[in-house]
Protein 1
Amino acid sequence: MQWNPSQYERFRAPRERPGRDLLAALPPLRPGMVTDLGCGTGYLTRQLADRFPDAAVTGLDSDPAMLARAAAIASRVRWRQGDIATWVPDAPQDLIFSNAALQWLPGHDVLFPCLAGCLTDGGVLAVQMPDNFDAPSHLLLRETAADGPWAPALRTAMDHHHALLSPADYWRLLRPHCGSVDIWSSDYLHVLEGADPVLEWTAGTALLPVMARLPADQAAAFREAYANRLRLAYPAEGDGRTLFPFRRLFIVARI
């Protein structure tokens, strides 16, 4: 699965908003070591570096194109290519930050206690994950995948849609390791512009593992079939803009 930084950043402002809300929810900190897991193009990582000028800040991502876009803007962040699932920090971290990345990984019952174990005494784990997998954008993606000649190739393409646990489960996982665990959800109403904007939004994220598994002709046919369903689920308003409700899950836990 290859990411396209330009496609991802077509909707940078609404994508960035939950990350900025996560930043705003951080407790008072004077960290020495900070890592942003799944940093993407780095716009939030650079904000972490600005907020904590005395900290060593690392941005980790598995995609070279996203990291190249991140590194193209001068900053003091250390950019590293790597897999979150196998990441081991060089030293205990004062802040592990992750915005819209951990939902791609399975095994949260193991992952989250492991991340808590990478923190210093008083360290913070701050996570935001999309919790929109039962919305039409994702339901229709799974429906389209199951309805066509591409179905065998896509049987496991969206397994990550089931990665998220309930808020209570995350609390139970983290509470034995953390002195405080704060978990909440926020519903965002994104107002998108342009033709087929929900399709273009998902083309930067949720649609990627589907396209990666299909030959060009099937990929084009799948995209059009999915687009037809999305147009019915997300009709344009009278002014031409499209409303896209999106729920996100936030976790801020402190050792």
Protein 2
Amino acid sequence: MSLPPAYLEYDKRGYGQDIGRYDWRLAKDRAPVRLKNARQVAAMIVIPCEYHPIDPHKTPFGHPHGMVTPFPDLRHFTARDYGNRVGVLRLLDALKSAGLKATFPVSAALLTRARPLAEAIVGDGHELAAAGLHGDAIHHAGLSESEERAMIEDVREAFDAAGFHPTTWLSPARQESFATPDLLAEAGFTALLDWESDGVPLPLRTRGRPITALPLLNELDDFKLLVERKQTEDLWTDQILEAKDYLKTEHDRHGAQVLGFTLTPFVAGQPFRMRSLVNMLAEFAGDEAVWCARADEIVKAF
């Protein structure tokens, strides 16, 4: 049976890719960026502090970090709560000891539940970013634009009411609708952590001003490697350090690039993982070719 002619018709199809947010190009055709601080790699550590409701609707799907078993899933709910009350403090201490800065996307629902956490993040000089309303408030194409705009406005209002004004956004489950970048730019966000299209910050076209996508590598995510793939802690940190060293070898050819990876508080903040994590952070701190910076700082530098 042959396919109908309409099957091959797609009005967004274009040269190299089927998306219009940015121009298609190969890495070899990209003008190399030489950072003013002469560093070869910009390391972006992202620590999402998300609130996951115990009774998620899971529309259109459940967040990978959310509840797993039927209601009330107290085991997974309390594990996530442990991350935001205990594990994240270990990560803050480890960063302070290494002298490194990170970006902390926080759910709006945590601002009233864990105000001291937000204050500790800002107090240590880290970037407080927005991680949507909570882990069950997924952005997707099934929402009307007015519904999604209202969700983003609720997030902005919650942060404003708490006295914080983030410019960087991480969507719950890193899921978007076709309109999400437009609506985020409209709401005043200037950086986005959902995409990983390039090795450098990439300005995305929107209906208004651009919003910059920074590469956050899903393949180095601690939840994916330690929980889903069941790798050892040392292998996980070795992979991150290997990525750092490899990007340095590409500097002469491709210029400075961004190494973005995630530390999830209920995963990386476990006591039996701290030795490997502390050793990895020490390697970053001691590498003069590497600049560990906040997402907002990286956008400005590039």
Protein 3
Amino acid sequence: MMNEDTIAAISTAVGEGGIAVIRVSGSEAVRETAKLFRSKSNIEEVPSHTVHYGHIVNPSSGEIIEELLVTVMRGPRSFTAEDVVELSTHGGVVAVKRVLELLLKEGTVRIAEPGEFTKRAFLNGRIDLTQAEAVIDLIRSKSDRAFSVAMKQAEGALSRKVKALRHSLVELLAHIEVNIDYPEHDVTEMTNAYICQRSNEAIDEINLLLKTAAEGKILREGIVTAIVGRPNVGKSSLLNALVQENKAIVTEIAGTTRDVIEEFVTIGGIPLRLLDTAGIRETEDVVEKIGVERSRSALADADLILLMLNVSEPLQEDDRLLMEQLRGRQVVILLNKTDLPQAMDTEEIERLFPSDSIIRLSVLQETGLDQLEQVISRMFFSGQLESADLTYVSNVRHITLLGHAKQSLLDAMNATEIGIPIDIVQIDVRIAWEQLGELLGDSVSESLIDQIFSQFCLGK
């Protein structure tokens, strides 16, 4: 894993800004930086967690490359648990690039791989795998609520619960081992009852975590929400109103939107991945036909569908076809243009869909949007989000491993009930313990570690 190398990367977004930060980590981080850094202080001798002003100088030519601040953090009291140096340069592409190129020039320091700083924090035992995965969730958070959930996980909220579960199973395994080694003191009925009791307690804890999975996954990834309807009913206007920016072109000409436009928006703390689709209708226009097909594909993949209808016109056959296709899906019916005289008979709509999923609104006058927020919250979060101290499970890997551990414990309980020997029952309990350990990263393959950290941005 090349964990002994000294690595460097730009840790801030590329572009213009007040400052840019280059992070260097490894046993040679301080020494290699000291070769280039000119200051009143020798940073090889300064205390840890101190900041120093100076200049980066090209040792070959003596040219001053940059004026900057250097922060020294010695391991293990650093993010990677190694010696870390952070160079805060002027923002902009040129300044930070020149400093990084000079650091890499001698060949002792290499460019970091995506996520390698966080990977080293994991490999060096500073954080476990659930905390490492939470770092990428922090970066990708699309709402305050999603950020709070990721922050709790990064601080170890999920880790503590899983470690407590594993400790409980270790105690159970120890009890079983004693009874296997000293069978003359074992009372089978009492041991089986104890196994069932402790396994059931662990299953209850796992169920509490899995109960948050659906909501946690939504907070992490957002609700894929397709805005669909006939051309010119106000879909693009709704997207613009929700994101509060003119992202989609709006005209009176039917078929203006030719492709799927994607934007993230937060409504009442709920992240929505909005897909504004081309108007779905029969058309001979080749380009519009492609847009309609993409709209149908987005419709199939959506978690939530906002079907928009124009109440200032009678119900059309295309409207009826869409409503028929969407029966049984998570749908909110938006009766738009209520600021105009109503020409649509809504009885047919009310027969097909629950009244509490039908909203009358005027995107032009921005009325009814609050009700939309309430309906979405009720559909996906039983009316409200849970309390802030709840530990959410949002990662598919975590959900899968918790499910497997639960099944192993159920297998152990079933085995005791049908009289399977206790040494065989022990295998199921141990498998559950190992699966929870895999969740934390105690026993995980190198390929999985590489796969997880390859999703990180460079410099994190």
Protein 4
Amino acid sequence: MTPASARPSLQTAPPGSQPLRVVSYNIRKAVGTDRRRDPDRVLRVLAEVGADIALLQEADLRLPPRRPVLDPVAIKAATGMAPVHFAKGVAMGWHGNALLLAPHIKLQALALHDLPGLEPRGCLVAEVQRGDQHLRVVGVHLGLLRGSRRQQLTALLRHLGQDPLPTLIAGDFNERSLEVGLGRLSRQFTILSGGPTYHSRWPVFALDRMAVSEGIQPLNIIAHRSADADTASDHLPLVGDFTLSAAQTRSAGGAP
């Protein structure tokens, strides 16, 4: 793979292929730029996007029992998606990272990992299936310190190992530099930016990114703007459209 970090131009999906839409969104516990906690506003943004897969950050309240800020019934009603439950208390996410799937996307395997660093961080690694296509999606929210982010990326790559399954990593990378801060990731993944996502009212920094391995072709990636998106969180949602290579098979018992 040739590493690259770019904002891809809009391309046409190959004939007969069905684009896959993924959104990464730091919802800031549903607290908007007006300092109001408004879960319904976040759900309206997710409905605007119309994703197949949503990877959320800061999806739970900070203090135990870390209750989710979005109600699963309301998520279903507003977006048609359903959250993946991790069977770990009442929280919707793992270290705040949550995964929502449209009905036609089936969860095949799930792994939850702690990540090193000064702050408690983690990632979720899910293997999902759409029809006869399999891929791995990874949700992350990296730390505020560059030293911690480097440790976390090293640990993440170790968790992923050498599995050839097409993989998409998405989240709040909290990093402005592709070369210094994300260099170890770019050796194995193509890092994508849809432009500045922070601060949502006056976007300046591209803190939210997606990274893809071979087998996943980006068509378009943008920071989604709307009246609700500009106020629902301090981050804009990052929306990517992708096509997958020829059907990827998975041996029985495979896991991320």
